Amino acid sequence: MSVSRLRHIPGIGVDEIGDAADAAHDPELLRLENLDTDIRPPRVALDVTRSAIDDDAANSYLPFQGHTALRDAAAAHVGRIAGRTYDPAADCVSVAGGLNGVLNVLLAVVEPGQEVVVCDPIYAGLINRIRLVGGVPRHVRCTPGPDGWATDPDELAAAVGPNTAAVLVMSPAMPTGAVLDRAHWDALATATAEHDCWIVYDAAMERIRFDGRAPEHPASHPGLTDRTITVGSASKELRLIGWRVGWVVGPPRIMADVNLVGMTNVVCQVGIAQQAVAAALNSPDADADVAAATRTWQQRSDLVLQQLADYPCVRPDGGWSLLVDTAALGLTPAQASDRLFRLGKAAATPMTGWGPQGANHLRLVFANEPVEHLTDLRDRFRAAFG
């Protein structure tokens, strides 16, 4: 490494497995390695995108903070879920996808050497962004059990201290599918007030829940309303992955800094995509659309768990993926991934670098393969692991 800021950033592993799967050119290979989905985006988003190609206003850098229609829609969307009102002009900016938003927020709130509390395991891309801004990840164990993953609210709050800049949370989390609820917000409200730090809420999958319940947004908690910065994205719930559009919504006392970082970083977002995302967020059937997609993803998750009932899988509460405990198989995640690829013809990502517990787990993405492709998953695992 030529610069020190990259010293502790190993990558995410998904690219290596994805490249190997692409290079195999094998139609029988199951693609369980990457957070893609075969479920089509909302029809209105596709129609508006096609129209935007001929719209001169869509072929512009301006406005840097995002098109007015998108900021109006995003502020209203977050406000509806959080149960509060946001000013789209002062409280919202557009970003080039959710992870660009996370990086911009971290650059705006984290001083080098400060800690950012995260659950463990968690997406390596979030950990790497903490490190890229000079922050220090503070991992809080999420415990696997027969009903899924659970993070103790008191342990989460206890990790917040005088050197904490922010608590970065995701619910459902990637890759575990773990959900946080009111008990976690109660605990964090006291801890973050004591140490005057932020909640950075990655809302990319908040409506993709398998319990049928509505999202429990931290900004709905009276003790966290003015401490919560929400980062949203069109990639997961709306399946608009290639559009690269997201948003950041939060208190005006920090949003000017987030906007400044954005103009210094990516500058502006994809012009022909922003109106499409706004239309999808504003659509009268938006919630029904996400609910229908979620039912399909849950059906696939249930089938994977049924197929792998004899293997150490952990049930997700939502999201697009679930984890296999490779330590229980006597293998490292890399070894398990290699065996599954060669012997089972299934691509899956080893979670090296995804937090301390990632060193024991393999991720299976169930969002991109229809159920008819998953019915022989048991046979593939038997071929790989016996």
Question: How would you summarize the topology of this molecule?
Answer:
Blueprint: H1 14-24, E1 30-31, H2 43-52, H3 68-82, E2 92-95, H4 98-109, E3 115-120, H5 124-132, E4 136-145, E5 148-151, H6 153-158, E6 164-170, H7 182-195, E7 198-202, E8 228-233, E9 246-249, H8 252-264, H9 271-282, H10 286-307, E10 313-314, E11 321-325, H11 333-344, E12 346-347, E13 349-350, E14 361-365, H12 371-374, H13 377-385
Parallel strand pairs: 1-12, 3-4, 3-6, 6-7, 7-8
Antiparallel strand pairs: 2-9, 4-5, 8-9, 10-11, 11-14, 13-14
> Into which percent range does the helicity of residues fall?
25-40%
Strand order of the largest sheet: 2-9-8-7-6-3-4-5
**pLDDT averaged over residues:** 96
Largest sheet: 8 strands, mixed
Quick one: overall form? globular
Oligomer: single chain
Instruction: Give the domain tally.
Output: 2
CATH superfamily of the largest domain: Type I PLP-dependent aspartate aminotransferase-like (Major domain)
Kindly name the structural category. alpha/beta
Radius of gyration: 20 Å
CATH topology of the largest domain: Aspartate Aminotransferase, domain 2
The rounded distance between the terminal residues' Cα atoms is 40 Å
Low-confidence stretches: none
